[in-house]
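Weekly puzzle thread! Below is a chain. First person to post its structure in C-alpha cell form gets bragging rights.
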Amino acid sequence: MIGTTISAQNYGIEGPTLTPNALGLVYEGAIEKNMDGQVNIHRVNYKVEGIDVVANVYTPAGYDKAGSYPAVVVAHPNGGSKDQVAGLYAQRLAEAGFITFAFDARYQGESGGEPRRTDKPASRIGDIRGAIDYIQNYPGVDPDRIGAFGICGGGGYTFAAAQPDKRIKAVATLSMFNTGDVRRNGYMRAQTGNILERLHKASDARKSEASGATPEVSGFADMSIEEARKIKVDLYREGFFYYAVTHKAPTAPGSYLVSSLTDMMAWDANDHADLIDQPLLIIAGEKADSRYMAEESFQKAVNAKDKELYIVPGATHIQTYYIKEYVDDISSKVISFFGSKL
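Winning reply:
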C-alpha cells in the first residue's frame, strides 16, 4: 500500500515519500485495487517490433466493452516508468471518461529489450506508435478518437510521433524535454563547445559495449543525496529526489546508456514540427528551467492552427509531476483539451 515513509521535506522538497502499492503504482491517489463502478486498471502485454511491452490500460467507471470511448496514450519521462507520473495522469483522464494507456518503453521498466536503459529516439517513437496499434483495437475504443499525451522526454517523443502519424487526432505535452537538443547542446545550451568531444566518448562507450563490457550509464545512478542537494539546476536536483527518493520505483532508474547518445545527439524533436496539423496543447511550469523547450516547439509547430501554450503558475518542471494544486490544474486543462478535440 502506498504510504508516507519519511517526510520529503527532509530533502528540501515538498510532498510525501511513497512506496509502490500492490499494483506497483507510485503516485498520490493511485488505484489500490479494481472495484465495480470505479476506474479499473488492466495489465496487458503485447509486442512492438518483436519485443515484449508491458502496459496498464485504465478504463473509466461503468466501462462497457460495447461502448465507444476516446482513448489517450501516455508516454513516460526519460528514465521513468508507467507507474509514476504517466500513470497519475492516465488515471486522472480515465476518471473523466477516457480509456487511457500507460506503457513502459522498450529496454526500460517492465518491458523487454537489451541492453537495459537504452534510450533511443527511434525506439521511443516506435513505442508510441506501437501503443496506438494496440489501443485502437481495445474493446470500446473508437480508433478515430485517439490522442497522445507525453511527459518530459516522453513529451518530446510524442511531439515527434504526432508529426507523421495522423492516427493521433490531438497531441498534448507536459514539461516537454527535447532530448536531442539537450544531449547535443547541453541543458539550457550550456555544452555547445564540446559536442564532438562528447560524441567521441559516446562512440567509445558503444565500442566497449559491443566488445562485451558492462554498459556505461549516465544520470542518477551513482549520485548521493548530499551530491544531489548541491545541483544548481532545478530539473536535475528535483528530478533526483523524485526518481531516487519520493517516488522511487524499481523499474525507473532515472538513467540511460552513454552509448545511446550517438542516436540522441543526432536527433531533434523539432526537425519536422511543421508536419503537426492536429490540435496541440503544450504545458510548462512558469518557473521551469526547461520552459524554453516548450516555447520553442510551440513556435515551430507553424501548421498547428489549433494550438495553445499553457503556463502553470508557480510550477517548476518536476513539481508538475506531483504537487496537488498543479496536478489538479493540469488535469483539468488536459481533460478539457482532449474532451473537446476527441
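Puzzle host: Confirmed. Bonus trivia for everyone else. The mean pLDDT is 94.
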